[in-house]
Amino acid sequence: MANALTTYHSKRDFKKTPEPKGRVARARKQPRFVVQKHRASTLHYDFRLEADGVLKSWAVPKGPPRTAAEKRLAVPTEDHPLSYVDFEGAIPAGEYGAGTVEVWDTGTYENLTEKDGKPVPPGRAIRAGHIAFALNGNRLRARYALTRVGKDGKRGRWLLVKMKR
Ligand code: MN
Q1: How far, in Å, CA of 89 to CA of 124, rounded?
Q2: Helix (H, G, I), strand (E, B), or coil: what is residue 120?
Q3: Which of 10, 66, 130, 146 is the most exposed place for a label (fewest CB within 10 A)?
């Protein structure tokens, strides 16, 4: 049956890759995030936020911004299972995303998205193209926002920015 992880599953052979197969999970009170450093054909950072029982994912070529002046391109990728949040390992040559994955930072986040003064749940915020959040990680402890900008195929391009305070 098709669900949020259908694309994730279709890209991988779980007999060959050590990545978790996973499944769509129930909502949790403290949603998690992870940034994974992925040395694939090109080095990038995979930025993932828990929403709707999966990890909503973006590939950020340059990694999270360090200052409010930097805007970082974030390209949406397929939803990953929650169990991917602590995945580290080597994806074999020839498999999708071949290369090494390490957890660069992880923790919880607080959704800060509002519309007309009312909170917007994370899944809905992402579908609408804008989510603001405070990361409570080891390296990343600040407020950020991800915003869809322009169209590049049907999923668009996004920018990851750090808020001033
Ligand atoms: Mn990746």
Answers
A1: 32
A2: coil
A3: 10
CA 126 to chain centre: 11
| Distance from Cα 48 to the centre of ligand 1, integer Å | 10
Ligand 1 centre to CA of 117 (Å) is 35
pTM beyond cutoff 0.85: yes
Reported as a single tens digit per residue, the pLDDT across 106-162 is 999 999 999 999 999 999 999 999 999 999 999 999 999 999 997 765 668 999 999
- For residue 143, is it left (φ>0), alpha (ψ between -120 and 50) or beta? beta
Give me the residues near ligand 1 (ion), CB cutoff below 5 Å: 38, 46
Q: Distance, CA 14 to ligand 1 centroid (Å)?
A: 17
Chain segment 34-49, per-residue pLDDT in tens = 999 999 999 999 999 9
CA of 115 from ligand 1 middle (Å) equals 31
